[in-house]
Amino acid sequence: MIDQVTIERILDAAEITEVVSDFVNLKRRGVNYLGLCPFHNEKTPSFTVSPSKGIFKCFGCGKGGNAVNFIMEHESLTYPEALKYLARKFHIDVVEKEESDEEKQQKDDRESMMIVSGFAQKYFSRFLWEEPEGRQVGLSYFRERGFRDDIVRKFELGYCPDGKSTFTEAAQREGYRMEFLEKTGLTIRREDWIRDRFGGRVIFPIHNIAGRVTGFGGRILKDKPDTAKYLNSPESEIYHKSRIVYGIFHAKREIARADKCYLVEGYTDVLSLHQAGIENVVASSGTALTHDQIRLIRRFSSNITILYDGDEAGIKASLRGIDLVLEEGMNVKVLLLPPGEDPDSFARRHSSSELLKFISENETDFIRFKTSLLLRDAGSDPMARARLITEVIRSVAVIPDQVARSVYIRECSRLLDVEENLLYSEVRKILRTRSGVAGTPLSAGTPSRVQKPAKPPEPPAGELNTEESEFLRFLLRYCTTPLFEQESDTPGKAEIITVGAFLIGGIRDEEMISDKPVFKTIVEEISQKMEEPAFRPEKYFINHPDGAVSQTASTLLAEKWVESKRWSKAGAYTEKEHEALDWLVPRILYEFKFMKIKEMLIKWEGEIAEAQKLNDDELLFELLAKIQNLKKAEKLLSDKLGNRAIT
Ligand SMILES: [Zn+2]
User: Which residues place a Cβ less than 5 A from the ion ligand 1?
Assistant: First the structure.
């Protein structure tokens, strides 16, 4: 039991951004902070923290509350446990009465397992530093490997004595129960024997993101045939191998600061890089990289550089990892070390500045990496080259962001000497078969419309830019939503202007419809059907017979509110999109027109140059007049958008 005065002291001390930023990389946005929500999977931040109100709120999944609620939710703790966590963090002494055996038992399993693991870590570390066997076998091993004592202490490395059950007996003497020793895997028990899992091994404790020990890796030192060199804790309620990366607790701040994370394979790679002064590094520790692991890293940065051995296995592992990282919308680079080196050996033989220099000079964009690798294997065999293109394109197709995809396609086209068009249509093919939705209109509910056979791949008619996508998204999503009232011809009776009418009217008057086919189709069909009472734009366009249209509509409508960077810069993201339409919709329109005007200016300025060459004064004056008008319109829009610099 914690008394009320202490509780209040804890609540006063627990500054919300300080609490949250142990787990989430927060960036300042106006008076608030913004980051990726730790409670649901998202790629665009909708998790906000308000220091003045002392609360967090996710506009994606709806979770919200104060610092205590955050810790309870994030660490799966009870209310008193979360208070104690915060008390530890903010150095507030909690006076509690001694726990009875009964109370001890009542603690839930997870917490008991954490406590047992914490005890084991301290036991193993103490043994390493203080007992003759620990020093002679364990500590001397780490020292021979070249690890400094401060690194051994920082990562709380240890040694488990080489007796049958020396550790288990010690734990039991201290009152820790067999149930939890077994559940954490520290002790293996069979009918007639008990044994320490990690006996005779040096120990690498595995910390969760909050810094608590939830599992262990142990390395055998003797040459024992048929014994695995590394042994890990088994899966348990507190240790899920696929959801943790080794070193995240020690790396998270530096990952956020450097906005970059190095990913290596093993425990000692992490240690060596730390020792060399590079602290934004984590290891997947032997498992193939998983989505959960990547998401954990993404909370702190979306830039990953994969640092693997230059041998065949390392290369294969890199290739597997790359697609996973790309799928999570992260930027990925690859660094293969010289043959025969691993990050551990390489870091030990080079100073930190040499290491950083080597990395920055040799880390390769994944496309170039994968392409050059496959090119090397394919040689001049045309079949092999065709397979190669498919392979590379497969990686490009998993990238969720359209803009990033286009950049990679361009790069690919150059490297492989294949036309961009062809690559685009390959990507589309893969996307279509993968989603199984896009390009395949759902026939249910629209029996009158028979699905056309798959069209041949279309030309890479320009993908939509941000302004066009945003325009269409608002148009599709809020077409029939009333935006504001305006006086009508009938006096005293106001006319309701819908979002659709406002947006379409805004571009129709000035002939600003984009000439991209998808954009044109959607805008034209909406303006024809808008007045029909039963018209449901979302359903209509998602089920559209034109594959490109239905694909665009699905993408735009499936996305959660991707607030454009502009909104968040303006500090307005805390409002929900649909509650801010009166402010957002005009802005969407202005942004679109602003972009359009820029396009036209560029086009006409080109025509002016032509007219000058041809000495066609009439055309020249006409164009100059047009441009003058456009510049005026541009200035007007720029004022509305907050004095954007006109370039
Ligand atoms: Zn959320």
Answer: 37, 39-40, 58, 60-61
Strand partners, 282: 263
Task: Give start and end residues of each alpha helix (H) in 363-478.
Answer: 366-378, 382-397, 402-416, 420-435, 466-478
Q: Tell me how far the alpha carbon of residue 583 lies from the centroid of ligand 1, in angstroms.
A: 25
Ligand 1 centroid to residue 170 C-alpha, Å: 43
What's the whole-model pTM score?
0.56
> Domains of the chain by range and CATH?
4-97 (3.90.580.10), 104-239 (3.90.980.10), 243-362 (3.40.1360.10), 372-435 (no CATH), 474-634 (no CATH)
Distance in angstroms (rounded) separating the CA atoms of residues 363 and 366: 9
Select from 646, 447, 465, 478 the least CA-distant residue to 561: 478
| Nearest alpha-carbon partner for 210 in 18, 65, 74, 64 | 74
pLDDT in tens, 156-193: 999 999 989 999 999 999 999 999 999 999 999 988 89
Residues 6+ apart with CB under 8 A from 22: 89, 209, 210, 252
Paired tokens of 54: 């002392």
| Residue whose structure tokens are 């300042």 | 28
CB atoms within 10 A of CB 267: 23
Q: From CA 119, how far away is CA 629, in angstroms rounded?
A: 76
Ligand 1 mean position, distance from CA 38 (Å): 6
Helix, strand or coil, per DSSP, at residue 43: coil
Contacts of 476 (CB under 8 A, 6+ apart): 522, 537, 538, 541, 553, 556, 557
DSSP helix/strand/coil, 283: strand
Distances in Å between the alpha carbon of 10 and those of 80, 87, 93, 480?
11, 6, 9, 49
217 touches 230 (CB < 8 A): yes
**φ and ψ at residue 306, rounded to 5 degrees:** -90, 125
pLDDT in tens, 259-298: 899 998 889 999 999 998 899 999 987 667 788 888 888 8
Give 251's strand partners: none
